[in-house]
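Module 6 notes. Inverse folding takes a fixed backbone as the condition and produces residue identities as the prediction. Think of it as a translation problem where the source language is geometry and the target language is the twenty amino acids. Below is one complete input and output pair. Work through it position by position during the lab.
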């Protein structure tokens, strides 16, 4: 089942969990891709993003505080290059740093656990 949480008037985040859309294998593949940047990425989230009528996959990455914005952008581009191979061509995929988007980070993290997490509980 999809859960919708509004983050703005025209934007909502739809959550998809393994039992409702994403397979465990897919989440493991995404985790393997993020592992290459384990020193720089603390957590990764995957949700469906609905903007008006457009739906895309959104990978939200939480970076270590010392990782500069330019480096974050390079990592995001590298990850997207690897991720597009996991999906069919008709699936739009977005990725972004959650470091400077507190409201979005809080919304996503309240909805689901990260598929990738380097923090030891």
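Target side of the pair, the amino acids:
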């Amino acid at each position: 089942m999809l859960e919708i949480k509004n983050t703005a008037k025209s934007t909502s985040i739809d959550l998809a969990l393994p039992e409702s859309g994403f397979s465990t294998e897919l989440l493991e593949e995404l985790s393997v891709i993020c592992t290459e940047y384990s020193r720089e990425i603390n957590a990764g989230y995957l949700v469906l993003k609905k903007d008006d009528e457009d739906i895309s996959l959104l990978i939200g990455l939480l970076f270590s505080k010392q990782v500069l914005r330019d480096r974050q952008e390079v990592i995001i581009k590298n990850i997207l290059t690897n991720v597009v191979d996991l999906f069919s061509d008709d699936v739009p995929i977005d990725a972004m740093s959650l470091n400077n988007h507190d409201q979005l980070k809080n919304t996503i993290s309240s909805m689901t656990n990260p598929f990738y997490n380097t923090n030891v509980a």
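Reference fact for the lab report: Confidence is low (pLDDT under 50) at residues 1-10.
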